[in-house]
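$ run holo --ligand "iron/sulfur cluster" --emit tokens
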Amino acid sequence: MLKISSAPHMSSPINTSTIMRDVIIALVPAAIVSILFFGLGALTVIISSVAACMLCEYAICRWLLHKKSTLRDYSAVVTGLLLAYNLPAWFPIWMILVGAFVAIGISKMAFGGLGKNIFNPALIGRVFLFVSFPLQMTTWPKPKFLDFLYTDAQTGATTLGIIKHIDVKNSTEALTQYSTSISELPSYGQMFIGYTGGCIGEVSALALLLGFGYLLWRKVISWHIPFYYIATVFIFTSILWLTTKSPIYDPIMHLLSGGLMLGAIFMATDYVTSPMSTNGKIIFAIGCGLLTVIIRLYGAYPEGVSFAILIMNAFVPLIDRFAAPRVFGTGRK
Amino acid sequence: MTKTFPIGGIHPDKHKIAGDIAISSPGLPEIVYIPIKQHIGAPAKIMVNKGDKVKVGSLLAAADGVVSAPIHSSVSGEVIKVEDIIGEFGYYEPMIAIKVEGDVWEDCIDRSDEIVREIPDDCEEIIAKIRSAGIVGMGGAGYPTPIKTTIPEGKKVDCLILNGIECEPFLAADDRLMQEKGEQIIIGAKILNKLLGIQKAIIAIDENKPKAIEIITKLTKRYVGVNVRVCESKYPQGGEKQLIAAITGREVPSGKLPIDVGCIVQNVGTVFAIYEAVMKNKPLFERVVTISGDSIEKSANFMTRVGTPASFLIEKCGQISDNLGQIVFGGPMMGTSAVNPDAPITKLTSGILLLSCALSDKQPETPCIRCGKCLDACPMGLQPNAIARAVRSHNLDALQELHVLDCIECGSCAYTCPARLPLLDCCKLAKMELRQHQTKK
Ligand code: SF4
Ligand code: SF4
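-- output --
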């Protein structure tokens, strides 16, 4: 039987599910590193977060909205992974359930589901947990290579935590603290491969960059947001570093520490909550970069990536309006 | 260096199966059905009656006004019907049905293969020949050619571009024509040069046609002023505005025509028809049609008489596979799925494609994920997802602001969209609604 349909009669092999699948693949290296360094502590967080997010989406679709479940687009898995990556190892499971509910239920489904949410669901989940359970959210087990059970975890501070700590100038006490703190800082190499304290998915720049390469190769994202975001942070801290020579502004350390790589590559590039045009993406990324540094250095919290991205999420409709692409044949620059 | 247009564009799979297959004749069907409207403008006025005997090239219907084109018989035989018959879109269209008897041509047509190189001196005479041959833009627009080659008062043309870019997947009709009738096309370009009063012509060919590029480049050595430009294989490189931008760097302003930036673009098929009309006295009654697709055994390029039922050509190409989804008239990006496979070939039919379900089935729409891929794909710099949203909420002011009337309906947006939004349909609907609204005002 002949079929009739409107043009075009071919479509690209890429669809929402393949895109989400590619994002998941790109996130795998970071999962491997986290399990290598945090063992079971990371694995439980990842599994419970992904499961909780999927369950939550399924439950809302089927029992609240009475429609077909949207699990097959895999976006709940992505949110689950990203939420997990933003939590410390051994984070209590019941708290993860709460976080997943906030991420999927409140910040995604309540806005109308995939595509309609304004804020990045995983980040909302993380920030909610951070505000509600500050103690657990800042208990950072130290990495331990290939110790799977990893039950006797020692805890320590993150790089940015140490920096925040020594940011008390002009006092003798601070000076002595300063030297001991500096010795606590991990080396660039350790930070690059991820042998440092922090959220399970954010520690390894190497793994995240691998994922970035994969996303670029598969044309899932363009390079603009990660590049401009990271470059802004680098330039901003470089200027401070060059003018003050204080190690707390060390630009390379700022690139490799905290959630910058994870945020710039995987969270700020979330389609739904970032601008659509290339110019818009650049504005958005620079905004994220500036806010990140400002919060890190002058804010109350040691880390600013989540807040920076969430704040910029709110500006996306505005950016989209003013950074619309130039229509062919109109006002050429 | 290859040239390309400045914004947007996509790279669909090329499927150029038919590029290496020589143009052949499919033979004559028993009956041809010739529509009297195969162009933009007024339908031609029917000049024959049932029972009349006609020859190949006899006038069947005369141009009705300036924006119209005459229609000639593509076969010899007897007119058996002059009535409304179902066409490719499933609508009744007035057609002339002719029962084929032999193959007798009008005496004035030069049927020899010899290439005629002496271009007539009189421009009036050239235009008259193009007009009476019923030549229209064969790239798909169907705009009567005489109008396009007459420069309006106050306008200046300095650039003639021959569009040898066949950016639609599967199609190879223009590719083959360039490979086999290259010199005729170049002479056609010289004829146009004369009409337009300029010395130069550029033949634009996209990179995926190395043979055509080689052949035409060699031939142009003998013709001063005709040059080949190689363009990137990217869809929609063959769009008029895109091609002008690629070749000259000029942008046709929103709402304006190519002539406003001094350019005229003619499809190579049209230029070949111009050559035949002017040098061989041959009206436009046959054209190259590519038969291809992933659901048919063989591909072919047929020099087909206008009015031949598509099914006649398809039968010549072997087995149709079971997974056939649709039969498309034209290319897969901009063509139309045929309701009636027996519908006739017209002056504008560049191909008949048999596409499998796997290739052509529409997937269900899912929510827009704001990925921005449609913005990146649009060669006109539009925001297709915003257009879709505006048209679905009937927001005419927003549509106006979104420049929807600049949409060239290339379908790049719909091809790319991972959420499978019917973006092209939305754009077409938006244009219609906006135009209606504007005429009401
Ligand atoms: S169909 Fe229109 S809106 Fe879509 S890509 Fe082509 S020009 Fe742009
Ligand atoms: S390509 Fe489709 S999903 Fe992506 S922004 Fe455009 S309409 Fe939305």
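-- notes --
Residues 423-440 of chain B form the longest helix (18 residues).
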